[in-house]
Amino acid sequence: MSDVRIGTSGWNYPSGKGTWNGVFYPRGRGRPKRFDELAFYAEHFNTVEVNSTFYGQPRADVCRGWAERTPGDFEFAIKLYQKFTHPRMYGERMAKQIVGTIGTEVPGGLRPDFIDALARPNDADLDEFRRGIDPLASTGKLGALLAQFPPSFKDTPESQDYLSDLLRRLAGYPVAVELRHRSWSDRIGDTLGLLNGFNAAWVQIDEPKFRFSIRQNYLPNVTGFYYMRLHGRNAAQWWRHDKSEDRYDYLYTNDELKEFSETADAARQLVKKLYLYTNNHFSAKSVANAAMIKQQLGEPIEGTYPPEFVARYPELAGVVDVSAPTFVRRQSAGTAHE
Fold first, then answer.
1. Are 66 and 36 in contact (CB under 8 A)?
2. Burial category of 298 from C-beta neighbours within 10 Å (exposed 0-12, middle 13-18, buried 19 and up)
3. What's the distance, CA 311 to chain centroid?
4. Do residues 284 and 7 touch, judged by C-beta distance below 8 A?
5. Alpha carbon 121 to chain centroid distance?
6. How far apart are CA 306 and CA 322, in angstroms?
7. What CATH number does the domain located at 3-297 have?
8. What is the DSSP code (8-state) at residue 46?
9. Which residues are within 8 A (CB) of 205 and not within 5 positions of it... i.e. 6 or more apart?
10. CA atoms within 13 A on the CB side of 43
11. pLDDT of the residue at 328
12. Which of 39, 204, 216, 254 has CA atoms 20 to 30 A from the CA of 151?
């Protein structure tokens, strides 16, 4: 039987319609001003997927704080910095910053070859990433690295070479690769061969399906570890939405989750470790679905939940403990938001 890790993508969603405050995180009388969301979260789940490292390189002091604020058997999955998986997005962001810094548009625009060079990850970037996550790796709390590529990342010889080189440079870390363009599943044998050559997990994803969406059967590709992400099925707001959080406004029903629970149950008989993350984070719907999956798999459902949580998600009435929650004050070190 494998080590099963079930959690959510991120733990800090403080504002907007999709906030977790007053739903999963208690608020009001009795809550300290410096309430520690991560410590509270870790009372309920044994893993979390960190999204903030996509937008900025992980910092050692912050990661050290995360390690100190979680139990000894807790694990983090760290999303790779966007420069490694979304170089075009990174280059465009840097170009805007450069223009903003000099205070005027560059005559003729910034040269494409300059932007390409700026966006190309190098050894220094990788060294910085390694230093940042070292406090997690050295304490045994680094579960896996998530390399999430955009839908525009197609199966081409150039993409295969880039992915192979990235996995080679990340040797020594468990890496889960999320591919979203259908071309990778159309040539499933080649994709499996590439990933298996580096013992990398092929991330199994559930999301709205479009013409070019990847097709998967959810089965594990290697015997090392398994990685599944549930993004929700809000097709109407997937590409068109007022705020990015609206994309993840989706609650899976118990019946919809059975497919994934049954797959996870079969997969844990074959792999050493299994990670399953719910990314439908709008208004803590990911928390509700993660707890529902744990119930279906017979995994312990730990921690206490505010009454407001069960009022919002009555499917979990009688499943989760709604006793008065314990409050943990946030420590002064490593307090950056996820």
1. no
2. exposed
3. 27
4. no
5. 21
6. 6
7. 3.20.20.410
8. S
9. 178, 180, 214, 216, 228, 229, 230, 231
10. 15
11. 63
12. 254
In the block, tokens 């910095």 appear at 81
Whose CA is closest to 230, among 254, 207, 246, 251?
207
Structure tokens belonging to residue 160? 């295969």
Q: What is the pLDDT of residues 224-236, one digit of tens each?
A: 899 999 999 999 9
Contact by Cβ (8 Å): 258, 211:
no
In the predicted model, what is the mean pLDDT of residues 49-54? 95
Paired tokens of 238: 């997937």
User: 304 near 323, Cβ under 8 Å?
Assistant: yes
- In angstroms, the CA 336 to CA 81 distance is 17
Residue 51, CA atoms < 13 Å, CB-side half-sphere: 11
Global pTM reads: 0.89
Domain boundaries, the chain: 3-297
Q: What is the 3-state secondary structure (H, E, C) of 273-325?
A: EEEEEECCCHHHHHHHHHHHHHHHHCCCCCCECCHHHHHHCHHHCCCCECCCC
- Three-state SS sequence of 111-171: CHHHHHHHHCCCHHHHHHHHHHHHHHHHCCCEEEEEEECCCCCCCCHHHHHHHHHHHHHCC
Give the pLDDT confidence of 240-251 residue by residue, as tens digits. 888 889 999 999
The 3-state DSSP class for residue 222 equals coil
User: Given the structure tokens 């081409």, which residue do they identify?
Assistant: 156
Helix (H) or strand (E) holding 225: strand 225-230
Name the residue type at position 31: R
How far is residue 107's CA from residue 111's CA, in Å, rounded to a whole number?
10
